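Lab notebook, bench 4. Continuing the backlog of folding jobs that were queued last week. Each job is logged with the same field layout so the records can be merged later without manual cleanup. Today's entry covers Thymidylate kinase, a 214-residue chain. Filled in by technician R.K.

JOB TYPE: sequence-to-structure
TARGET: Thymidylate kinase
LENGTH: 214
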Amino acid sequence: MGRLIVIEGLDGAGKRTFANGITAELTARGRSVARAAFPRYTDDVHGELIGEALRGGHGDLGDSVYGMAVLNALDRRSAAAALRDDLRTHDVLLLDRYVASNAAYGAARLHQDSSGDFVAWVQELETGRFALPKPDLQILLQVPTEVAAQRAEHRERTEADRQRDNFESDAGLQKRCGEVYAQLAAAGWWSPWLVVDGSAQVDFAAIVDEHVLA
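JOB STATUS: finished
OUTPUT FIELD FOLLOWS
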């Protein structure tokens, strides 16, 4: 059975770049790697609805914290069998966002912290009722909100398919979300966490040795 490694962080934290670095390091060592990213905007109807709602579609759906959280949870539930298959056939499965992103963003939208009702509700829904695969490690790429925003803005200018959505454009929400993420990591929510400075040079070899394959 492979190891499930989740990469979490704000929009613009560098999750995709970090995943590329970990993948390259593992591949150089002869380890097989599978990857997935949530929401699955183009691969699942729930993901499609999420993307449309984040850009103002479907009436007031995007305003519903619980409605959006349920769609995100259903997107992962429909992917659960494929995730388990990847874990059976690969050494490492890397996920860009997972359950903690649902908890962090929803709590931030409701102005709650990690000890609030929303995080508990997400945990019961996704890890309890839906019984999603548990990570071996969750990695938080921690960057200042301003740095993440600058990166997201640059990405929007230079990549035609990376237009920011309503959440990504809300600086206050991003700041609160970063605070909830830090609380989840400090509490070891659901699994062990590793906090990485996303604004500094990353030693991928050390992370793979000490955490990913440990």
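OBSERVATION: Strands lie at 3-9, 33-37, 92-96, 137-142, 193-197.
SIGNED: R.K.
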